[in-house]
Amino acid sequence: ALKDRGLTVEGNPVLGYTETHQVIVRVGYGKGPEMAKRLEENNIIVNYQGAPDDEGFTAASCLRMGVQEMTRFGMKGEHFDELADAISQVVLKGRSLAGDVSRFRKRFTEMKYSLPAEEAAPLIRKLLEAVG
Length: 132
Description:
alpha+beta, Aspartate Aminotransferase, domain 1, 5 helices, 4 strands
């Protein structure tokens, strides 16, 4: 989705660029910190990442994105398409989308792929009793 919107995604396109929960996007020599800050100002949290051909993190040319957290909150492929659109708008066009991103994020507030609260509560109490 990021590649389709004009961003340079590192990795093997045959594998969908990654076989893990992390995606690396190249944003230009030394621009990683600036782009990470710009995305954070728009409520999208990423890390800047030095690439193997960068001198170090101060010259970081990439962004590292982990998708596991949003998957845990129920995002699916079509939702990541919406997120990719916002990322590309901020990175490539310098748009400010903080409000749009906040509204988008509010659609995903219930944690998935974990024990329901009613099952977790007795286990948490038992654990706290054991350590306390």
